[in-house]
Every structure is written in structure tokens, then in C-alpha cells.
Automatic annotation (TrEMBL):
Keywords: Kinase, Transferase. The keyword DNA repair does not apply. This is CBL-interacting serine/threonine-protein kinase. Residues 73-334 form the Protein kinase domain. The keyword Transferase applies. PROSITE patterns: PROTEIN_KINASE_DOM. GO terms for molecular function: ATP binding; protein kinase activity. It comes from Penicillium chrysogenum (Penicillium notatum). GO terms for cellular component: nucleus.
Amino acid sequence: MRALRWLHWPMWSSICHFTSNISIYALWPLRRLFLSFSSTAKKGERENDEEQLQSTFEDGSHKITIRRAAQRLDNHKLLIIGIFAEVYLVDNKIIRKVPRSASEEDMQPIIREAMVYDTLGIHPRIAECLSRGRSDYIDIKYYRHGDLANYCQKNTVAAELQSKWFQQILEAIVVIHSHGIIQSDLALRQFFLDDELNIRLGDFNSSQCPGHLALGYEKASHCLPRDYDLPNTETSDLFALGSTLYELVACKAPYSELAGPKSDDPDVIKARILRQHEVDHEIELRYKNHVFPDVSGLFGGKIILGCWRGDFSDAKEALDQLEAFPIYHHSSEL
């Protein structure tokens, strides 16, 4: 399914990941926004009583099909509708990810994620999969604190807790790489917080595993410039790890300022989406020239820069450097 990778870079990477960051990747709450700048958007009676929206971007169109509420089970609360999957909260205990159709492009990310969870098994740094042995949907334990990116945006995080998460993120990458898994879309939003506020890595629907090439890439702010026709590697994951750790300690994604101020105004959001392709190429150019965000004064700054520069042979080496200091020693000397 190598053909799926075009959806992630460069154009669809700009659209999909940007919309994810500002919560319009969900699509359902902001149908009006998509209708406002779609060149073709229609409603009508269909055989399965479905509503179809179609949005046209610079490089073509993508159809969004939304099932009416009557078609959902009572104990299934719709959370988001993505490109490939619908995500539900089941009985307030389980997050269920279901392919949007039986097409190969919708099924492959679900099959891949199931494969990765089966490979990784049970580990305190990995999200708990409750549907092992299945490949038609993914069930993950519901983590009430949500993902790490949203938690950090909404809460003041103590230095000690930030230091702990810094180490646990490194531990999670050591775990998946030891099994030959390349996450391939690493970012702070891929980490969930359990009841003890420990992190758990999840969302492996584009990941690479032994014998199976990745189905996607990272967003530009986390992406190592490279030949995208070649397999993803630990090196590309380590680069994304640097950007993820930067997100944690800087409270923003690398070069997020290039996109301009955030807004809930549909026109501003539309303009940001259409400009994101240009912003992504500017970020890629800076990375190619080894121009990275300033990390001076940030906890773990040297480790972050080392991930970007390729100073570490693997994640374990970065973790070892961190562990040479007490975990709660919140110092920019790291």
C-alpha cells in the first residue's frame, strides 16, 4: 500500500495535519466551514441515507461521508471523522477506531495499527489495545486525560512532571524501535496520559513494521527532509522525536509562528490551510540547511538538537544521555 503515502506529503500533509492541530480534522463540528469554501458540496437522499460533503483543494477533491446519527449504536459517541476512519467513545471506556468504508485505502491503516499493537504487546509506555486478534477495527482503552498536546495546552505543567514526560517519551521510542516499529508520524498528540499521568504512545495507523513499509510521513515541522520514496527509518523517527520533545518543553511546534496567529474565524482558518503548503516548504528548506529553532534555555535542549542533527545512533543513546542526570534536574544543560 505504498500508494497511500502520497496522502501525507506534501499537500495532504499540509491539510490533514494542520486541520488536526486546530480541531477541524474532526470535520463533523465544522461542516459549515468546509461548505463555505468547497467548490462542490451537496446534500441529498442516498440509498443508505447518508450525507455527503465534498471539498475541492488545489490538487483535487476529497469526499467526506458522514453517517447520520440513527445509524450509530446508542453506546457509541462519535468523536471525530478522519480521512480513513471514524472514532467513537464506547460506553465511556473504550476508544474505537472504525474504517470509514471497506475500501483498501480505508482498511489498510486499521490493519496496520492492529498489526503494530500485536507486535508490541503489553507495555506501560504503549496505549492499551483491547482488540488484539482483530483487524476490522481498533479498540484502545479510553484515557480520560486525553493526549499530551491538548493537556499541555490546557494545563500548567510543573517542571518535575515535564521532566518525567521527557524521559517517558524517550522510553516509548526505545520500546517501539526495539521491535522494528517506526512510528512515522511522531508528534506530541500521539501520546496519551493514563490515570497516573504517565505517557502511553499510540496511533500507529501509518507506522512501518518489519516487512511492511510506512503508509505516511510526519507533518513538516517534525519531518526529516529525505528521499520520500525510500523506507522510513529510525533516523527519521529520531528527527521527529526532537520536534516532539521541543513541543513538550517549548509548548509549541517547531516554527509554528510561520503559520500566523490562530483564530476560530472560518476565513482565517481557510487562509491558513491554503497557505500551509507554502509554510511547510519553508520549514523543509530550513531543515535542509540545518537551521533549527532556538533551544537555548530549554530543558533537554542538547538532546533535542542532537535528535535534529542526527547525533544519536538510536533512541537509547539519547535516553542514556538524559539518565546521566537526575530526572528532576530541570536544566538546560541536558
